[in-house]
Design a protein that fits this description.
Layout lengths: L3 E2 L2 E2 H37 L1 H4 L9 H26 L3 H23 L15 H7 L4 H23 L8
Antiparallel strand pairs: 1-2
Length: 169
């Protein structure tokens, strides 16, 4: 009887914990893969001239809007994946918190970077990886993205909780 707490055995609690951790990791991986794929595709479709301001690596307003939409989509999918795998309400909250904290940590270098005295001039043809490395976004974009991502995860979790797995035979 000592191994039963609150109606659940320790084995069941470990299984639930493992499922929860796996769900958060899977949700984050899904977001990462989608962000990389969708942003790469968006850059290839838009080209450097619509993603960046002329002659610089400062992103355009169009790119900022596209990044918000794609980031939100990826976050919703990550929330759905997490909620469906976890079958509980807390793991998506953990994923949303993770997205918020990591996003704010990634915004710190953007917000604290000294204003460059001279920016590298952008040539017409810039590859995808070079564009990712050199892109400069406004501080407000870097600060909004984590909150948008966390909200997207929570929205996706609401959708994912409605999913009912098929009954086992």
């Amino acid at each position: 009887m000592d191994d039963v707490i609150g109606g659940f055995s320790n084995g069941q609690r470990r299984t639930d914990m493992f499922r929860s951790v796996l769900a958060v990791i899977a949700g984050y991986v899904a977001m990462f893969v989608l962000v990389f794929a969708m942003f790469s595709m968006a850059y290839l479709l838009m080209g450097a001239d619509r993603a960046f301001k002329p002659g610089s690596y400062q992103v355009t307003a169009l790119w900022a809007v596209v990044s918000f939409v794609l980031g939100l989509l990826a976050a919703v999918v990550g929330g759905v994946v997490c909620a469906v795998l976890a079958r509980r309400s807390r793991p998506p909250l953990a994923l949303a918190a993770l997205v918020l904290v990591l996003g704010l940590l990634m915004a710190v270098p953007v917000a604290t970077a000294p204003k460059p005295t001279s920016q590298p001039a952008r040539t017409a043809a810039v590859g995808n990886f070079e564009a990712m490395r050199q892109a400069r976004q406004p501080v407000w974009v870097a600060l909004v993205n984590p909150f948008l991502g966390a909200a997207g995860v929570l929205l996706g979790a609401r959708v994912g909780r409605r999913y009912k797995p098929p009954a086992s035979a």
